[in-house]
Amino acid sequence: MTKSRVAVDVGGTFTDVCIMDEDTGEIRIEKTPSTPDDPMRAIMNGVADSKVNLADVTMFSHGTTVATNALITRKLPRTAMICTEGFRDVVEIRRSNKEDLWDTYKDVAKPYIPRRDRLTVKERIDAEGKILQELDEKEARKVAEILKKRDVKAIAVCFINSYVNGQNERRMKEILAEVMPGVHVSISSQIMPEIFEHERFSTTMVNAAVSPVVVDYVSRLSDKLQEGGYTRDLLLLHTGGGVMTPASVKDFAARLAGSGIAAGAIASRFIGNLCGFENSIGFDMGGTSTDVSLAHHGEPIMTKDWYIEFGYPIRFPSIEVLTIGAGGGSLAWKDEGGSLRNGPQSAGAYPGPACYANGNEVATNSDANLVLGRLGTSLAGGEITLDPKLAEAAVRDTVAEPFGMELHEAAEAIIDVANANMANAVRLLSITRGHDPRDFALVAFGGAGALHGAEVAKELSIPVVIVPPNPGVTSAMGCLLVDIQHDFSDSFMADAASTDPKDLEAAFQKIEAEAVERLRHEGVAPENTVLQRTTEMMYQGQWRSLAVSTPSKVTSTEDLIAGFHEQHEREYNFRREDAPVSIFRVGVKATGVVPKAELPKYEVVENTPKPATQRDVWFDGKCCKADVYDREDFKAGAQFSGPAIVEQVDSTVVVPPNTTATVDQYMNILIRWRAEA
Questions:
Q1: Which among 77, 219, 265, 519 is most buried, taking Cβ atoms within 10 Å?
Q2: pLDDT by residue (tens digit) across 515-526?
Q3: 286 to each of 271, 276, 366, 381, how far by Cα in Å?
Q4: What is the signed CA dihedral for 433, 435, 440, 444, rounded to 10 degrees?
Q5: For residue 272, which phi and psi values (nearest 5 degrees)?
Q6: Other CB atoms closer than 10 Å to residue 450's CB: what's the count?
Q7: What is the DSSP secondary-structure string of 324-357?
Q8: What is the Cα 158 distance to its own chain's centre?
Q9: pLDDT tens digits, one per residue of 417-457
Q10: Could you tell me if 536 and 587 are in contact, meaning their C-beta atoms sit under 8 angstroms apart?
């Protein structure tokens, strides 16, 4: 029997199923409408429609938005927090800052756990890990009984200085398990063992709050897949760019809070490298939002400073992705100052754009593209038929008449505003971080990415745009390109120059043992286990650290200090050789390598494809005849020029005037602007 791998990406509008043949690398796709009330239904619908036999599936990987949506909508089970006496308000005091410092009337959102459910117990550990006061077990049991009466479903245990000694937290967890069997308990010394109380408390709070939701969802989906014949572990993509099994989800549920958007970043980096571009920008535009990511020298940009809602950081390592409210369903509107705006409001999966004929009468980006001829009258292989008259009426009523514009001028204005918004997002992730967009390729994917990619690239002077073979399911494909991965860390606060290398080596070996055990528990063989060390360091007096790559055996700290100086100069453009350096934390990235099927490669022969038809398309205020191609007719080596439209089941590619396009050996379309453009 043919063995296959299946990846699923749940979007706001469509759920994408990507099936890869293990032997040939051939990919086939299935798109089905998302079911926001229960994403699992759309997943099983897509699997059923794709006719895949789950008994023949060797890997099922999934990027989920369940945790993200639960946090955004705050549809969370009742969660409590137990803190050291006097510290129940750490998560509410936060850093005493605001997202918009000068907006007097805009308050930071309330914590995910209200004050009445943040209780305290007597216990105390000092900064060196010495227990000053044992956990008051009588008081701890009293608190547990109170939370049991309140029918709390999850609990975060956050004690002061537990990052250096978690003994009291572990005992509190044992007591909770005795009094409240089955309750989800997250302890900060396990979730995020670092010194900063707010970040540690916040991450643990988020982890506890989403645990019941995520664990329930993962359990139900695993059971459904097993009923269908799937015999392996369900793999879930996490924010760090790897996958985790249901066994790890129970402990680290918050790692899935950015699961869905990480898949696109992984896929865009892979495709960029495949096409010979180590520097690439991922441009994932769907129906509701656009996700922008960046890879430099073949590696993704990572961050620990991220959140779903401002003020409540999630400190797990994450691929840095910037998300803005710009998608095919983004609504055009007129602001109080009389300016045209685009998004972040969206028509969503239902009713969708006006041309879907589901009752929406406000113009969207999809309606504007349809009016301009850039979008055809059907989507998803004919499953969705678009009504041009409804699109014209929406553009006319929403923009043309209020702004005194001609119909096509109004439609182009909608697209121009959307493109400007997305170009600004790319600038934020590139130029403001010291990267020149002209040194990058733009990988355009998602259902609408290829419609806008070329014009966004022109706005930023990006020389080449890469459109993958299946842009609409590229994020799903990203789930097939990852390994099982976990990040472990432990505090190690010391002066770098005077640190005994043996002590540092012992600290690494301690967390490596934990990492190896976790991968073993997930079925990873020793020969497929890869451990990468980092030492987080800073100049004494600083509070921001840099992660320095560390050898597999530490024999001296001199090389680490030299590496820190070099990295600090690269990041901040200066170094202080005479300043003492501190070690802050040791970390290990544990990877369980998963065998990957290779994408099919075709012989390149220069050829000129024949268009299936022509149609009127508007660019820069002018109507022109554009060749319309069926992407299935392309062969490797095909060359053609704009204006042209390339249609396929999962997306539409716009090739503007003054551009040339070629098809490479992996069937990617590479669009380049001519010099005069």
A1: 265
A2: 898 888 777 888
A3: 18, 26, 11, 17
A4: 20
A5: -60, -45
A6: 29
A7: ES-STTEEEEE-TTS-EEEEEEE-TTTT-SGGG-
A8: 27
A9: 999 999 999 998 888 877 899 999 999 998 889 999 999 99
A10: yes
